[in-house]
Amino acid sequence: MKPFKLASRSDTNKDTLVAIPMPERTLFIGQGYCTIIAGPCAVEGRDSYLETALFLKNIGAHILRGGIFKPRTSPYSFKGLGREGLAIMVEARDLTGLPLVSEIMDVRDLDYLYEEVDILQVGSRNMQNFTLLEELGKLKKPVLLKRGLSATIEEWLLAAEYILNGGNPNVILCERGIRTFETYTRNTVDIGAVPLIKHLSHLPILVDPSHATGKWKMVVPVAKAAIAAGADGVMVEVHPDPDRALSDGKQSLTPDNFRKLYEEIEKLAALDNKVIL
Amino acid sequence: MKPFKLASRSDTNKDTLVAIPMPERTLFIGQGYCTIIAGPCAVEGRDSYLETALFLKNIGAHILRGGIFKPRTSPYSFKGLGREGLAIMVEARDLTGLPLVSEIMDVRDLDYLYEEVDILQVGSRNMQNFTLLEELGKLKKPVLLKRGLSATIEEWLLAAEYILNGGNPNVILCERGIRTFETYTRNTVDIGAVPLIKHLSHLPILVDPSHATGKWKMVVPVAKAAIAAGADGVMVEVHPDPDRALSDGKQSLTPDNFRKLYEEIEKLAALDNKVIL
Amino acid sequence: MKPFKLASRSDTNKDTLVAIPMPERTLFIGQGYCTIIAGPCAVEGRDSYLETALFLKNIGAHILRGGIFKPRTSPYSFKGLGREGLAIMVEARDLTGLPLVSEIMDVRDLDYLYEEVDILQVGSRNMQNFTLLEELGKLKKPVLLKRGLSATIEEWLLAAEYILNGGNPNVILCERGIRTFETYTRNTVDIGAVPLIKHLSHLPILVDPSHATGKWKMVVPVAKAAIAAGADGVMVEVHPDPDRALSDGKQSLTPDNFRKLYEEIEKLAALDNKVIL
Amino acid sequence: MKPFKLASRSDTNKDTLVAIPMPERTLFIGQGYCTIIAGPCAVEGRDSYLETALFLKNIGAHILRGGIFKPRTSPYSFKGLGREGLAIMVEARDLTGLPLVSEIMDVRDLDYLYEEVDILQVGSRNMQNFTLLEELGKLKKPVLLKRGLSATIEEWLLAAEYILNGGNPNVILCERGIRTFETYTRNTVDIGAVPLIKHLSHLPILVDPSHATGKWKMVVPVAKAAIAAGADGVMVEVHPDPDRALSDGKQSLTPDNFRKLYEEIEKLAALDNKVIL
User: What CATH number matches the domain at C18-271, 3.20.20.70, 2.115.10.20, 1.10.287.3240, 3.30.70.270?
Assistant: First the structure.
């Protein structure tokens, strides 16, 4: 028996379906839905975020992403707009009707993030921040759990187990690349993790090709690979002007390239009878 | 300027097309052709190899693989049938009209392998066997160059450069998984290597999902991912009775699963306007 | 210029000396002092902890370690005694006069851990828990910062920079092994990190051979290697009865083996004119 | 039972002692002898090699190293002087009485290298060049088997097994760093490999801190660590003028620094009652 009892497929033959209720309709992740999450790495300002959000909505993105607390390797890097950024994201939700996903780094932010954000993201650096996982287990809010930079599949599923064991069944996994010796790319996407997770677990799995590769030219091919391998969707960075992004510009798609990405994924989803609403 | 001058895309804007002349028709790899190489890990006996070869031919495989010299971690493992195995492969070629790829481990075998094998494979353990690369550079015979277990993209292209620099332009790259900390899978397929190689080089690139994952259930999803990411084809292990294989049974497809693989790849190739003859 | 401005040796030619004031005497780490931290992985009970503490004190250990909040990969594993364990550690300090080091996992525990613990440990899973680092930067309490499981040297020093930049100069680094493909050992000690840190930074560096190797037979040789490479000390796990330990028994030294370790380190310290009080 | 039957300690409780007979005296490796191998990365010219050899002999080095066939990642790098370099090495042996170690890359060179070289080195890239290992197994000549760049301990011992199984008991292992994600150093020395090999096998093990770190400033500390961890010796690069070296200058010790290394190792060897003749 696997050590991740609740995350394990052996517990249930039914794939988890995560529901995100929105005023106009309920959005679903998993069970044959193909989900596209998009947005800039960090919320940098009101106008550009709203503009990007509208564009993404029009193309067909399902969920808006945006960092308001950015975990930065250096204490001297831009760390996000904080609650000011959150207000901008909320405005974008009102404008577009799209749900929001944003990263939580500190249990002390949970109270108000819980109110405003539709999916709470746990970043790769916090995948084993067990006190944070335990708090998220007490809620019913969906959690997007990124794989740690050098986490094994088993450790990742055990991190999910912390949340499930707390009573929150709404866990979405997200492969975002692991650390290897390769230096041409930022990280190495473990594409095999997609079928392996599908084999071991009933939880939905997304792939983030932006953080994983660090190069926008690789984002579309790797996103296509993710869908072809069976992922339940992708999470990509889109910026209206990548060259001026305050963080992760090199890996951000322009709006035009996001359109291409969307079209490619649509075709692949159709091939596997996946629903892309 | 990149250190791999001849392998670099900057040298030429035209993708390499490797031609494999056969009595009935010439087979091509690269430039929009989608190539499927299949066969058992090792040639184990005449009847089973010929039977498998016919089956693969009927489904649509383009090239027959088969190990006759197997690089084995332990000196006590089955190391292949050697020249006896080669005779069986040649018989299969006569029977099916399909070209042969087999691994060369020792420069001293070059003379007769050169005569009988259509593509000489350099395995991952020999990617930096520079004396072998230099000998292969003196020929025109196509070389399938597998990526070393922990080779960077740059080292891999520099290994190709050894062959190109010797005067042999017919190099086909093959991603077969790199070594990471993950223990559920045998290796980790670096799917990003596909678009990266396409960006850096004009050489064709295949993916071997069998060795890379070590689990047959992951072979079809990862093969699909490879094609979706832009690979020029895949190389898979097929065995009529995987449970009885002398090596790599766990990662071998049954003939039935190979048929499914073929159908899936056909659909993906069509989506990207690739030719799968 | 290095991105870790305050942690960088270029800022100052003087090595950091961390002082830990105790009633009887002030203990120092760095600048030629050779420090030995010892204790069980987790505090499991009053009697065994006090007995171990007395033994360690008698042999010559300088600091007592003991986990009261254990970061465990699985939610089902023993997670420490919490505040009950802390009370036992405090009793051991009163009994032995030795300072205490214990891990902090949650910023919300800081208030009372600050009062009772002499060195706050940040575990490898929290090396990039930036909100925790920022809180620790506001104090003057010494922080033992373990290297993340797959952290580069630069990321590690930038994590230290968070604390230094907050205003807390008392950072002690601790190499505890990185994750590699090797499966015989739990992790791989990066012994080169010791001279490299000494070259790049003025901060003291310890090595934890217990977590790094996962095998008690390797602890003494690797601890010796650490001192010979220039480390400012070691941190080891000692358990009165390793076979019955609730966590990490396989890597714990018996009291007798700890005595041998102490004697070996004493000889090596003398060779390099290091002070082992 | 371990898969490396002959390399395994379980086969014999006696450590292997490798004897290298020289006109004046027989040199031994293993069983408590502490051996220092030194020389430039590549033999670059007669005068500088002879001068370096004499210097090394005077300080106390036991064996001269020198590359005459250099495995180079790029086909455009300096690849050694070949047989001309060998003649220079032989002259140095006549001059100093010290035995020679040099790398063999091609089985076709075996005939004459066998005659002239006292220890045949198998480089990390050829650790799994099984046809080479099989040829070396047919001889009695000592073989210095470097660990592959990403080889597990088990694979390494199985490579040794190929040689032992062929009938040649004279295998010396050499840890030279493994590939990890760290970019400040060339490779990561796996110091734990030393006690682990001592635990698993009866074969002697050396450490090469020059290739492993890629930085001369780290060579002395890591060499000390190796001896403290129980290694049977070290293999270091020394160059009369590192800034002008045709390969690996950055990791080469000056003659003065080699003297310091020798003195440090002498003290550590004495501590563990090792013989450094």
Answer: 3.20.20.70
Query: Chain C: nearest CA to B174, how far in angstroms?
Result: 22
Please list, in sequence order, all residues whose beta carbon lies within 8 angstroms of the beta carbon of residue B59, skipping any fewer than 6 positions away.
Answer: B255, B258, B259, B262
C179/B179 CB distance under 8 A: no
CA dist B259 → B61, B228, B265 (Å) = 10, 18, 10
Taking the CA of residue A202 as centre, how many other CA atoms within 13 Å lie in the half-sphere pointing to its CB?
Answer: 19
pLDDT in tens, B139-193: 999 999 999 999 999 999 999 999 999 999 999 999 999 999 999 999 999 999 9
**CA B261 to CA B254: how far, in whole Å?**
10
pLDDT in tens, B180-193: 999 999 999 999 99
- Hey, are the CB atoms on A179 and D183 less than 8 Å from each other? no
Neighbours of C185 (CB within 10 A): 22
Residues of D in CB contact (< 8 Å) with A are 179-181, 183
Tokens of residue A242, six digits: 């990548």
Q: Which residues does chain D have within 8 Å of residue C228's beta carbon, measured at their own beta carbons?
A: 221, 224-225, 227-229, 268
Which residues of chain B have a CB within 8 Å of the CB of D4?
74
Superfamily the domain A19-270 falls into: Aldolase class I (3.20.20.70)
What is the CATH superfamily name and number for domain B9-271? Aldolase class I (3.20.20.70)
* The pLDDT of residue A12 is above 70: no
Q: How far is C80 from chain A (nearest CA, A)?
A: 13
Rg (CA), chain C: 17
A214-to-A177, A188, A205 alpha-carbon distances in Å: 10, 10, 20
d(CA C7, CA B262): 56
Please give the angle made by the CA atoms of C119, C121 and C123, to the nearest 5 degrees.
Answer: 170
Q: pLDDT tens, C143-178?
A: 999 999 999 999 999 999 999 999 999 999 999 999
Inter-chain CB proximity B180 and A199 less than 8 Å: no
* Residue pair A147/A156 in contact by the 8 Å Cβ criterion: yes
- For A164, half-sphere exposure in the C-beta direction (CA atoms, 13 angstrom radius) is 24
Touching partners of A (3+ C-beta pairs < 8 Å): B, C, D
Q: Give whole-number Cα distances, B91 to B23, B86, C230, in Å.
A: 14, 9, 64
DSSP class of residue A156 equals H
How far apart are alpha carbons D187 and C191 in whole angstroms?
Answer: 11
Residues contacting A187, CB < 8 A, separation 6+ = A149, A176, A177, A178, A179, A180, A211, A212, A213, A214
Q: Could you give the CA distance from residue D250 to residue B220 in angstroms, rounded to a whole number?
A: 47
Q: Quick check: B106 and B69 in contact, CB under 8 A? A: yes
Chains in touch with D (≥3 Cβ pairs < 8 A): A, B, C
Q: Which residue is closest to D223 within chain C, CA to CA?
A: C229
DSSP state of A236: E
Q: How far is B156 from chain D (nearest CA, A)?
A: 9
CB spacing of D181 vs C213 below 8 angstroms: no
Residue C146: half-sphere exposure toward Cβ, Cα within 13 Å: 26
Beta strands in D170-267 (DSSP E): 171-175, 205-207, 233-237
- Residue D276 burial (CB count, 10 A): 18
Nearest to A71 among C5, C72, C130 (CB): C130
Give the 3-state secondary structure percentages of chain C, helix then strand then coil, rounded to 5: 40, 20, 40
The b/e string for D244-275 (b: 16+ C-beta within 10 A; e otherwise) is ebbbbbbbbbebebbbebbebbbebbebeebe
B175, B211, B224, B273: best to mutate for the A interface, most A CBs within 10 A: B224
3-state SS track over D113-171: HHHHCCEEEECHHHCCCHHHHHHHHCCCCCEEEECCCCCCHHHHHHHHHHHHHHCCCCE
